[in-house]
TrEMBL record, chain A:
Name the record gives this protein: Phospholysine phosphohistidine inorganic pyrophosphate phosphatase
Positions in coiled-coil regions: none
Family, as annotated: Belongs to the HAD-like hydrolase superfamily.
Cell location: Cytoplasm; Nucleus
GO molecular function, one term: metal ion binding
Top-rank EC class of the record's enzyme: hydrolase
Lineage: Eukaryota, Metazoa, Spiralia, Lophotrochozoa, Annelida
TrEMBL record, chain B:
Protein name: Haloacid dehalogenase-like hydrolase domain-containing protein 2
Pfam family, one: Hydrolase_6
Source organism of this protein record: Capitella teleta
Highest taxon listed in the record's lineage: Eukaryota
Record flagged with keyword Metal-binding: yes
Length: 272, 264
């Protein structure tokens, strides 16, 4: 997929006003399956050496922050759990604030986040990327749970359509949330990219305003479109789930395209 | 109100809830059917089934002493097969094993399309990914129908094919061609097989939306029978009003014959 087409768009001409970066993880730093994308370790290190704050916004919902960090650091990155923004902790706060009791349709690896949350007699359904756990039986149980609720609440950790895993495009959680929406006639509350709140909480952590940051991701809708709707610049990498037809997308026009993360970072550092 | 001034030359007749309920015929339905045939009205039995092959539908009706022929039955599986043959695609069949019988002889090697019925045993991550990748590679998507859910004998609701069709549509941006009732093409295909024009045909069924409103929007006259899944007030789901509302199938036949008498 990594086509060497060179940079497109002139986002980097505004480098002087760019004070920080939000980076997607899967498809930008490494491929699902655990191999670092060429140059991405060097790119993150270069930003750190230049003193540029970086946060990692991921819709990774199969494991905890600590697991994500362990996986990344094993292949040569140097990340800290507090720099990672996955949806699960945000969902946890959301349901606790509202006093909801979740029925979890998520990967076993992510259940630790909710271990101490009351899950009896559920008042909401939470969908994560459950992968093989998206069986008919589990989908049906979530559906029946929603239908039994007086006010059905459906929470989705992002709305991604697909991602690249072990060289193959693979269904993300979005289609499964869509199925439940269609079956029950409800609209999901999305927590994670592309929700505005999600980008803002990561920006808040590094004390930046949307116009002072760039989001770099491989998902043209969730990463790039979502960030732009929040007021950030959005740049798409030609790695991960990138497909050539993203260059003429019907609804999203990125502020730029780059072959990979390292190309973006080099352009930025050269022009700042 | 759809009004037909022309004589009715063909009747599309729904099965479950209209001429039988489970293993009991609606009283007088067999005789009414014979009367309809004797009056020269062509008949076609139409049903949305995604699990039962045509052979089984036929056997059930024969057991209930309905005088019908196999070729008079038109199901949503038949309709799907028509689409597969017309568009010359090789479908990946997301169907239960029993329904595959209606696709015997269809080339399913190296698939370039996805056909989705009600198939709980294959609605899993692996099969949906396979379907997703075919669609992303340019395949077409055919849905037998888009029902949200259905009620099983356990009294619980279970997910129908609609949610999974809609999941694949969302993931790929490919819009499904849905073939069952209440799609206009379904009624048109069924009528084509008996060679009767839309305005000379009636659809009789107990589902206000899928049978009656659907067929009227497709250009036929619709008769709502007050049996099966009919609930009081269902008349209002037909816009603008059903051509006829009758207490059961024999009454619907009487209505057609009376209408034809005024046309001759």
């Amino acid at each position: 997929m990594a086509a060497a087409l060179g940079p497109k768009g002139d986002w980097f001409l505004q480098s002087k006003s760019i004070k920080g970066f939000l980076l997607d993880i899967t498809g930008v730093l490494y491929e699902n399956g655990g191999v670092a994308i060429e140059g991405s370790i060097e790119a993150v290190n270069a930003l750190r050496e230049a003193g540029i704050p970086v946060r990692f916004c991921t819709n990774e919902t199969q494991c905890t922050k600590e697991h994500i960090v362990t996986k990344l650091n094993r292949v040569g990155f140097n990340l800290q759990p507090h720099e990672i923004f996955p949806p699960a902790p945000a969902v946890r706060s959301f349901i606790l604030e509202r006093g909801l009791r979740p029925h979890l349709l998520i990967h076993d690896g992510a259940k630790a986040e909710f271990a101490d949350v009351d899950q009896s007699n559920p008042t909401c359904v939470v969908v994560g990327d459950a992968e093989d756990f998206f069986s008919y039986a589990n989908m049906n149980a979530a559906f029946q749970s929603l239908m039994a609720m007086e006010n059905p609440v459906l929470i989705s950790m992002g709305m991604g359509k697909f991602y690249s895993s072990k060289g193959k495009l693979t269904l993300d959680l979005g289609p499964f949330t869509k199925a439940l929406e269609f079956a029950c006639g409800v609209e999901a509350e999305v927590i994670g990219k592309p929700s505005k709140q999600f980008f803002l909480s990561a920006l808040n952590d590094i004390g930046l305003k949307p116009e002072e940051a760039v989001m770099i991701g491989d998902d043209i809708v969730s990463d790039v479109g979502g960030a732009q709707a929040c007021g950030l610049m959005g740049v798409q990498v030609r790695t991960g789930k990138y497909r050539p037809k993203d260059e003429n997308h019907a609804t999203v026009t990125p502020d730029g395209y780059v072959d990979n993360l390292l190309q973006a970072v080099k352009l930025y550092l050269k022009h700042r | 109100m759809t009004s037909s001034q022309k004589a009715i030359k063909a009747a599309l007749i729904d099965l479950s809830g209209t001429i039988h309920i489970e293993d009991e015929a609606i009283p007088g339905a067999q005789g009414a059917l014979q009367k309809l045939r004797a009056a020269g009205v062509k008949v076609k039995f139409v049903t949305n089934t995604t699990k039962q092959p045509l052979r089984e539908v036929f056997e059930n009706l024969s057991n209930l002493k309905f005088d019908i022929q196999k070729k008079e039955i038109f199901t949503s599986l038949t309709a799907a097969r028509c689409v597969v043959e017309e568009t010359k695609v090789r479908p990946l069949l997301l169907l239960e094993e029993c329904a595959k019988e209606d696709f015997e002889g269809v080339d399913t090697s190296n698939p370039n399309a996805v056909l989705v019925g009600l198939a709980p045993s294959v609605f899993d991550y692996e099969h949906l990914n396979e379907a997703f990748r075919l669609l992303l590679d340019g395949g077409s998507l055919i849905g037998i129908h888009k029902g949200r859910y259905y009620k099983k004998k356990d009294g619980l609701l279970h997910l129908g094919p609609g949610p999974f069709v809609s999941a694949l549509e969302y993931a790929t941006g490919v819009e499904a061609k849905v073939v069952g009732k209440p799609q206009a093409t379904f009624f048109h295909q069924a009528l084509q097989q008996v060679g009767v024009a839309l305005e000379e045909a009636v659809m009789i069924g107990d589902d206000a939306k899928d049978d009656v409103d659907g067929s009227q929007k497709a250009g036929l006259c619709g008769i709502l029978v007050q049996t099966g899944k009919y609930r009081s007030g269902d008349e209002s789901k037909v816009d603008p009003g059903a051509w006829g509302v009758c207490k059961d199938f024999p009454a619907a036949v009487e209505k057609i014959l009376e209408h034809n008498a005024t046309c001759s």
